[in-house]
Structures are given as C-alpha cells and as structure tokens.
Automatic annotation (TrEMBL):
Example of a GO MF term: DNA-binding transcription factor activity
PANTHER family: BIFUNCTIONAL UDP-N-ACETYLGLUCOSAMINE 2-EPIMERASE_N-ACETYLMANNOSAMINE KINASE, ROK (REPRESSOR, ORF, KINASE) FAMILY
Biological source species: Butyricimonas virosa
Family listed: Belongs to the ROK (NagC/XylR) family.
Protein name, entry field: ROK family transcriptional regulator
HTH marR-type domain mapped to chain residues: 25-65
Amino acid sequence: MNDSNTINKGSLPGLKEKRYLQKKAIIGFLYRMGELSKPEICRLTNVTTPTVSRMIEELIDEGWVIDRGCGNSIGGKRPHVFSLNPDAAYILGVDIGREYLRVAIFNLKNEPIEGILEYSSILEEQDDEATLRYVREKIDETIGRLNVDRAKIKVAGFALPGLIDREGTSYTYLTYEQPGIKGILEEMLQIPVFIDNDSNVMAMAEHTFGVAKDVNNVLCVSVNECIGLGMILNSKLYRGGIGMAGEFGHIRISGLEASCHCGKIGCLETVSSGRAIENVAGKPLQEIIEAARKDDISAIDLLHRAGEKLGEGIATMIHLFNPDMVVIGGEIVQAGDLMLVPVQQAINKYALARMRGHCELKMSNLGVYSAILGTLMMVMEHLYDDTECEYSLY
Ligand SMILES: [Zn+2]
C-alpha cells in the first residue's frame, strides 16, 4: 500500500499524532458540512481557537482547505468560512455489474469528474483473472480519459453483486480466498479499497442523495437481473452478522414452486426478478417494459404478477422492520406505475393498516447510477464513521 495514504499511528510521536488526528477530523467535518467558520470548527473538534487557527493555516498551505471569505450572519460581524478544496483528493468508484462496468472519479464535493463512464461487463462471460485484467484496463482508461492526477486518488470503493462478507471476501463473483478480492484490488491499485454488495451501497446512495434522503428507516429493494435489498435502520446501513443481510430475492413466497438458481424452490426471485420476467417473455426487460407501455396485455400481466409477489415480500418486511419508507430501484424503475401499483396493492392486502399507513412507497430517482454513487458513500462511511479505520484521505 502507498505510504502517503496509510498512516501507521504508532510511528507518530504524541503531539504529531494528535495534530494529525485533529486535522483529519477538521477535514471530516468540512467534508460532511460543506462550509464552517472557525468558532464552529472549535466547537465541533473541542480544540482551542489558536490551535484551530494554526491548523487551518497549515491545511490551506497544504492545499486541503480554502478560505471562502465572509459567510452569512444575522447581525454582528460575519465570520470567515472555510471549505475543502474539492480537488485536494479524489475517490475512485467502481460498480462491477453483470451487464455493465461503471467507473467514476469523485472530488470532495461528491461530484463525478466529467460524469460516470460506462463500459460493457464481462463478469459472467470470463474467468476471474480476465475480469480483473479488464477492470484494471478500464480504470486506467478512465483515469487517462479524465486526465486525472493518479496520485490524488487516495481510496477506492467497489460494488459487486452477490454475497460479500464484512471482511471483503466475495462468494458469488471474483471468489478469491486468500487474500480476498479486497486484498487483490488493493495490491492492484496500491490504495486502500472498500467493497460491498451493490444493494447495500445503493441504499446508502438513496439515503444520502435520493428520495430517502435523511429518512431514518428505509428498505431499498433493487430489481435488476436479480433482486437485492439494502436496509438503512436508524440511519445506518444494517449489514447483519457477517455482512450478508438482505438476501430478499431468496425468501420463500406462497404459491411459487419454480426452482431458483440458488438451488431452492419458490424464491421471490423466480417470479419478480428481471431474469424471471425475461425468461417468460423471451426478450429483454427493457423491451417488455416498452411493450407494456404500448398496451401489450401479456407484458402488463407479466409486470403485474412480478409486482404483486414483490409487494407480498415487502409486506412481510414492513411487519418485521416498520420502515418509514420503501424505495424500489434498479432497472425496473423504468416500468413506473406498471410496477408500483401492483406492489402497493399487495402491500395494502398483506400489511397491517397502521404499519403500511406509516410507510411511503417510492421509486428511486437516482436511476442506474445509485450503486456507483453508493460506493462513494461507503468509502466515506468507513473513513469518517468507523473509529477502527486506519485510513484517511489526509
Ligand atoms: Zn433462490
């Protein structure tokens, strides 16, 4: 790993380490809150004004912080406010899907530099070695096309479909044992890497940027080729015991008898996933949705049945978690009301009135980019909320 990104805390003598941690905290607060005045920074960090002044001066000299001049104030003297230099460091986000590979480089204002680049995926066609080579090639290509200084990319976040545990070992795709895929990517990129299931990071994106912004308890169901679930409970992503919570696609639904690709029978995924819908119609989901929009009754029926069973599953989740909101995301979003209406009808039918009355049902407005936006939020959660995390942008 790159020395400039990793700090061995043991090697820093007392005061130097304390300063480093305080400056790291200032960067964290500025990242989350945008602009802050000196008195606000003193209050948040619990550090005296002269020390904060000195550290801010150092951070300005080092290119991390910008003095934005006088901010707004109601009466009295307006204090200077400070913000992060958005180009002081970058975060690499990579969403490795079954049908696409998306790569973005984010600045410290959460903006992808010149947008998100999309490539085709080879995840299901090629072996692990070839997939990794391809991913590396596309990351290099993106950095080249965006003309970004590679040394400023301090950390990376990856989203992958399938089972991934807390330690970053993947059990469905790129199933390396020792070191797991996280370790292999770190070696490949020479920066710290965080990795999580795509549904988990999608939920983090919905909670930060999407329709579920600042909602405390949200269940985010993604319907693509498979069905995923990310749960935000008490405003935190719930990962479960070993990090695999939310395998919603494989819950048993009444009346279903078809075999699932997981080896079990009657899973929700055998009727409501993109793959199941496509198998019945014999054409891509996109075309089925378009046909339904043009009044094709069999396409409407197919989406209706998928929505009904999805709603039945969601009703169970409403009983278990009492969420404030359920968000439906993924490719199915394009079906709009053709999907949302049968889901809501099933919730009305199967969930208790008092609980369903409290729970809003919404379609995601982040489109296909929710997972890659989520990789950024996952990285920031690790860097700034996890006290055990030894990495930092600074
Ligand atoms: Zn299954």
